[in-house]
Amino acid sequence: MTRPVLVVMAAGIGSRYGGLKQIDPMGPNGEIIMDYSIYDALKAGFDKVVFIIKRDIEEIFREKVGKRIEKFIDTEYVFQSINDVPEGFTVPAERVKPWGTAHAVRSCRNVVDRPFAVINADDFYGRNSFEVLYDYLKDAEDQPGNYQFCMVGFRIENTLTDHGSVARGVCTVSPDGNLIEIHERTRIEKFGNTAKYTENGEDWIDIPYGTMVSMNTWGFTPGIFKELDERFPAFLDANRDNILKAEYFLPTVVDSLISEGKATVRVLPCRDRWYGVTYKEDKPVVKQALRDMIQSGIYPENLWREFK
Question: 293, CA 20 to 30 Å: which among 13, 56, 228, 258?
Fold first, then answer.
């Protein structure tokens, strides 16, 4: 058995939210969403966390997050840099945003050498997500010619906000529980008792409730780094006409590996509801949900003081 690593993608500044939402207090004693995720991961069995951040937020991140977390778990920091690109490629001066989630995970290629889970810093996933990830990853081994990955799947109705659009990886799952394909939809909104997505802002397409979606909650073996690295130049070449905005999405790489027969991705259904702060209006909802979970005994009132 190998104890897996937790990788937390925390490099993004929340433009729609209007601030560094990763360090916005949510719990009764100033806890942030990451506190609850790492607490749950520790309870599940994870013994190391790697934070992916941008260099320009290192000082505040270490002050607001690292000093507290480092007391309880082996902690490492990796920097996602816009200039971490293949030799011979020149980053346009006008490009200001990072290259996306696949590029973020690629930045860990020199520090993670065992199976690992990937989560977003600003999403609340619930204890069950970390339990199923740990149970899968602790024994994960690639088969000859086939990577053995996993993904935590959420029902789409448990991942929506009432305050605007969200981006989700919409999944097709086989009867035996494996991922068939995944499509990144960057604008999904709630319409009464259904969800819809649009690609052009005008035409809306239904996504039935019950559909499984990805919240960037993945489980990988280290083999993913080779694929992320080798496919990055092709991504840059294919997006020459949109190089200022194009994003190298993790679900897109996974979908390609599945279609090529190079990876099997087990979908691990999660019973918990997702909470997140995509918009400022989401914050009271998240805070109330945490209060309710504390009152029901899922979390202690003071998360780290009472950690055992």
Answer: 13
Report how far residue 83's alpha carbon sits from residue 71's, in angstroms, rounded to the nearest whole number: 32
User: What are the tokens at 37?
Assistant: 């995720």
Within 8 A by CB and 6+ apart from 215, the residues are 120, 123, 125, 152, 154, 159, 168, 169, 274
Q: Give residue-wise pLDDT tens across range 61-99.
A: 898 889 999 999 999 999 999 999 999 999 999 998 889
Query: Distance of CA 161 to CAs 156, 186, 269, 288, Å?
Result: 11, 14, 20, 15
The first and second tokens of residue 120, run together, are 């977003």
Q: pTM surpassing 0.85?
A: yes
Q: Which two tokens stand for residue 16?
A: 């729609």
User: What pLDDT digit, counting tens, does each position of 205-241 carry?
Assistant: 999 999 999 998 999 999 999 999 999 999 999 999 9
Predicted confidence at residue 18, as pLDDT, reads: 47
Radius of gyration of the chain (CA): 19
Amino acid at 244: L
Q: How far is CA 6 from the centre of its chain?
A: 11
pLDDT tens digits, one per residue of 7-26: 999 986 444 444 565 677 89
Query: Quick check: 195 and 156 in contact, CB under 8 A?
Result: yes
Closest CA to 184 of 205, 200, 168: 168
What per-residue confidence (pLDDT) applies to 256? 95
| CB-based burial label for 175 (10 Å; 0-12, 13-18, 19+) | exposed
Distance CA 215, CA 169 (A): 7
> Residue 188 is encoded by which pair of tokens?
């999904």
Amino acid found at 122: D
